[in-house]
Amino acid sequence: MVKRTGYWILGAAIVVGVVLVIVNFAVVRHWLAVHTGTVNETGPYYGFWSGFGSDIGEATLIGAVSVGVYTGARKVNCHAKGCWRIGHHPLEGTPYHLCKHHHPDVPVEGASIEHILGQHKKFKDALAAAQGDQPVS
């Protein structure tokens, strides 16, 4: 019931706002013209394009770069929830890439050469088993 009352109040406020803009349209139009630079300038819209309107391109560029950075970060970061590290390590059998802190097969303190060679041998054995060959010695 409270939610419905809130919607009615919001709707009434919007209607009152629209009516006030319509009644005072000349004042609103003049205020908008002065603040966007389209009045009292040397030519039509000179003030807009040399002032307020020149920011449209900058806002577009900043928005595009921001979206690109966000998309790139979300694509390459660790898939563990809340982790912003780069996910260099794919988790076998899944589409996920994890960082060294969340991947179960990567040691957190750093991989020794024995660990790396052991992982490689395990991969080669699994590959050979899938092809029906003998394990690699």
Q: What topology emerges from the helices and strands here?
A:
Layout: H1 2-23, H2 25-36, H3 46-50, H4 55-76, E1 89-90, E2 97-98, H5 113-131
Antiparallel strand pairs: 1-2
General description of the model:
Strands 1-2 form a two-stranded antiparallel sheet. The chain folds into three domains: 2-76, no CATH class; 79-106, no CATH class; 110-137. The chain has 137 residues and is mainly α. A hairpin with a 6-residue loop joins strand 1 (89-90) and strand 2 (97-98). Helix content is 58%, strand content 3%.
Given as residue ranges, the uncertain stretches (5+ residues, pLDDT < 50) are none
Please compute the radius of gyration using only Cα atoms: 31 Å
Reading the helices and strands in chain order gives: HHHHEEH
How does the overall form come out from the CA principal axes? elongated
Mean pLDDT: 83
Strand order of the largest sheet: 1-2
Number of strands: 2
The count of domains is 3
Number of helices: 5
